[in-house]
Amino acid sequence: xxxxxxxxxxxxxYFLGIGGIGMSALARWFLVNGYEVAGYDRNPTALTNAxxxxxxxxxxxxxxxxxxxxxxxxxxxxxxxxxxxxxxxHAELIYLTEAGFSMQKRSQVLGLLxxxxxxxxxxxxxxxxxxxxxxxxxxxxxGVNCAAFLGGITQNYNTNFLLNxxxxxxxxxxxxxxxxxxxRSFLTLFPDVAIVTSTDADxxxxxxxxxxxxxxxxxxxxxxKPDGLLLMRKGLNLREAAPAxxxxxxxxxxxxxxRNLRIENACFIxxxxxxxxxIEAIPxxxxxxxxxxxxxxxxxxxxRMGVAPRAVREALTTYKGVKRRFEYILKTEKxxxxxxxxxxxxxxxxxxxxxxxxxxDRTLTAIFQPxxxxxxxxxxxxFGESLSIADRAIVLDIYPARELPIEGVSAxxxxxxxxxxxxxxxxxxxxxxxxxxxxxxxxxxxxAGDIDQLIPDLKRLLSDQ
Length: 465
What we know:
By secondary structure, this protein is of the alpha/beta class. It has helices spanning 21-32, 46-54, 69-73, 91-98, 106-114, 128-141, 204-207, 210-221, 289-304, 309-318, 345-358, 373-387, 412-415, 431-437, 455-463, and strands at residues 12-16, 36-40, 57-59, 78-82, 102-105, 118-123, 146-149, 161-162, 174-179, 193-196, 229-233, 245-249, 257-264, 267-274, 277-284, 327-331, 336-340, 364-368, 392-395, 422-425, 442-446. The longest helix is centred in the middle third of the chain and has 16 residues, at 289-304.
């Protein structure tokens, strides 16, 4: 496995795990830039269908002979990109590694591409997908030549990837990238501007303890270019680690903040205070106190990149959000149904607090699907605490994702800490029966697993009443 310094000799790019949200964005970049792209994934999805329609060859069986023959026969011209989620026993991974192909993790390739452009990297244990997509939208809306590799599907562009216009010098392109702390992936990035939204304990299956998470974030901000900028949420302890200028933001204080924050017609409106002035009365289509804070960070990065204050306001006014981030599924006089990807206690607390602020007179029913056995074990009490904000809490079984079961770890661990007036623990198959006992007027679904597959049925159930 040799370290790839450039793409000069590469003609073919093969993705192991092409259907992942980050992998598919990279695959799209290579395809539109003239490379031939093929890949494997375990299951077909709406995303893999879209990639196939765009011209990529994808298969869903673990079989070496299904890797296109001309990829296999041209080892020197083929780059293999893989995700850590692919098991080490995977037949194709073993074959490609042993045959001497250039094997690169997704994060390494992303670092290679971003390093050729002017990079804005958004890191944080939560908030990074929304914040990075806000930065990308502001730049795009303002006519700035930018590329973006995002961890979610933006509602404005219906994609996780924005392509830059062709240029002679890639440094003239601003690359917005979601900097993922999972597997320390973000250490492949050397940004011009970095935003850090949060450094809470997470991914302890990888890191072991919170201090290792903090060390990793310290290493990341240490890679910001010396003439660059770190925009960090106030209260984070990263100033000493950054060689660059450091500015702080938060809802209320710091170099960038909000004032006159108010809710009108279920819309958050605020004035953005920044070192050189105020941008007044920004209405956010995506609600939530946490999203106001994300917007402050995104605006700060855009202002640094030379976007005019008026253009920042216009862009934030038209920002529609990311799929599965405070996404309205149903909004009628009788019923509100919102879906959110939150999978960490701090995210759930921010989400449910915002929903309560928007709809103080409605009874809030929250359905939560825990994600990962290890995360459930590490944060059970905090999950229960945050879910207790709901009037009625329904806890589903754990979605294992990449993990095998851990003895003694189940949804019951979280459930015992929930203090909501009404609480239920049930499998997905019983959910409809449970909701039919009393149809909710304000329903939220929460989780990073496959809970989104329940949304069409839940929408139908609530629409029929």
